[in-house]
Amino acid sequence: MSPHGANAGQVPPSGGDLLFVYGSLRRGSSHHHILEGLHALFAGPGTVEGQLFDLGSFPGAKPWPSDASAAAAGASALASDVSSRVTGELYRLRRPERDLAVLDRYEGFRPGFPVASFFRRGLARVRTRDGSFMEAWVYWLNRGASPRRVITSGDYTMRKMAASESP
Question: What is the rounded average pLDDT for all residues in the chain?
Answer without folding.
Answer: 82
